[in-house]
Amino acid sequence: LKPPVRVAVTGAAGQIGYALLFRIAAGDMLGPDQPVILHLLEITPALPAAQGVVMELNDCAFPLLAGVVTTDDPNVAFSDVDFALLVGARPRGPGMERKDLLEANGAIFGPQGRALNKHAKRDVKVLVVGNPANTNALIAQANAPDLDPRCFTAMMRLDHNRALSLLAEQTDTHSTGVKKVTIWGNHSATQYPDISQATIDGTPAAQKIGRDWYETTFIPTVQQRGAAIIKARGASSAASAASAAIDHMRNWALGTADGDWVSMGIPSDGSYGIDAGLIYGFPVTCSGGTYTIVPNLPVDDFSRRLMDATADELRGERDAVKALLG
Ligand code: NAI
Questions:
Q1: Do residues 260 and 179 touch, judged by C-beta distance below 8 A?
Q2: 3-state secondary structure of 156
Q3: Atom of ligand 1 minimally distant from the CA of 159
Q4: pLDDT per residue over 19-73, tens digit each?
């Protein structure tokens, strides 16, 4: 076994936390030879519930679980962490405008960014799940000036996995046969699920599915899947979100498969004409613990329009939280 690594999870007593912690402790995220020490961050009133989760974690007697720290102090939660999954966020309440939501979350992700800046390992891998994920990641990153901005990512992987599964279902194959799908932009209804480079069992996706189904069914179904889950379940996606977070971190830490890529929300370096610094969903490959944007993909007019629309939304979000970006 390797020496243990420290993995912080915020919102540990929430729905996603409950689906996520047990899989991390079981080795699904970092592999069967990597012990973990979990650092759980919750708000003070939720600490008793978090303690209940710790009791259950202990009751699993996981071979890879090397310790658990539970706290309501981000400075403790992020001390020496190698990984941080920022799940806890302020949900949208009745009558709350998007701007109010962004500001309420700024009050969470600004201080968490500063605590990561002070206390985390210098090569910490941060994944923001809590919505609005891309802009929350931007706020955290902007408040962590001593860390490489590339330490901060936002979750597009649930959208990516939804797209794989929907394409597989439509073509009567398995999701493992679907490669090179990209979710560009924001984790929101403006995201652009792009199959222009995708293959299904080795054949270009465009030859297997009709353009009409792609534009009028596939894209809106992926964009609206979160709302459909809420309608069906009466609660937002939790196990699938946790599973996507595991996939995101595993690929980032351990690499992506040859001949394929994944979608990650990462600070733009200006690639594909997207403003540098925006946390935007790109196609990436990962190796040796770093991610690289897939270069030189052709972008047709249809793609350009949708990629720009989701970038516009992210620019608007960035402007709405300007005061929090330091
Ligand atoms: P939940 O409400 O069940 O749990 C959130 C937990 O975060 C609560 O226990 C709460 O006490 C805690 N929390 C709130 N503020 C905190 C703070 N400052 N520090 C630490 N903990 C804090 O919500 P759920 O279902 O677990 O979802 C969490 C977030 O993930 C939501 O913002 C949701 O919109 C988002 N989400 C994102 C997805 C994505 O694909 N990026 C997919 C699904 C959900």
A1: yes
A2: coil
A3: 40
A4: 999 999 999 999 999 999 999 999 999 999 999 999 999 999 999 999 999 999 9
